[in-house]
Design a protein that fits this description.
It comes from Pristionchus mayeri. It is a multi-pass membrane protein. Keywords: Copper, Copper transport, Ion transport, Membrane, Transmembrane, Transmembrane helix, Transport. There is one protein chain. The chain is mainly α. The chain has one domain. It is built from four helices and two strands; from the N terminus they run E-E-H-H-H-H. Strands 1-2 form a two-stranded antiparallel ribbon. Strand 1 and strand 2 (43-44) form a beta hairpin. Helix 1 (47-77) packs antiparallel against helix 3 (93-116) and helix 1 packs parallel to helix 4 (121-138). The model has no long low-confidence stretch (mean pLDDT 83).
Length: 145
């Protein structure tokens, strides 16, 4: 069916909706200062708020690596006893803490990923620096694989 000559536009002139200001959604890496991070209330409009936001994002990267260490420490603190049944392991304090920390780590990881997906060079670099700094601070305590 040839639809090249059909008019597919719709007149929305009588809409009761107020016009909405749409922030740009970047699909490429950029160095613009004017940006929004994760939530509408987290707006960056000047160098000061960009520096403040980069510091927060850097700390978020450090926290992500700390969560990995926390899971390891819980594993060491609550080891499974040899010969314990699956049900005992399943409902153990260690497993419940591991599950809770795993959930927090996953949510935090996805939030960090969404920050990186703002495609802001400054925010992305801050996140990577934070993760590397966190690994430097906490990675030596983790077992090597």
């Amino acid at each position: 069916m040839d639809m090249d000559d059909m008019d597919m536009t719709m007149d929305m002139g009588n809409s009761t909706m107020a016009p909405m200001k749409m922030d740009p959604m970047w699909m490429w890496f950029h160095t613009d200062i004017d940006d929004m991070v994760l939530f509408h209330f987290w707006q960056i409009h000047d160098v000061g708020t960009m520096i403040y936001s980069c510091a927060i994002i850097l700390l978020a990267g450090v926290l992500l690596e700390f969560l990995k260490l926390a899971r390891h420490l819980v594993d060491k603190r609550f080891p499974h006893r040899a010969g314990s049944s699956y049900a005992e392991k399943f409902f153990s304090v260690g497993h419940l803490l591991q599950t809770a920390l795993f959930g927090v780590q996953m949510v935090w990881s996805y939030l960090c990923m969404l920050v990186f997906m703002t495609f802001s060079v400054w925010l992305g670099a801050s996140l990577i620096i934070g993760i590397v700094l966190g690994f430097f601070l906490f990675g030596a305590k983790l077992p090597s694989h």
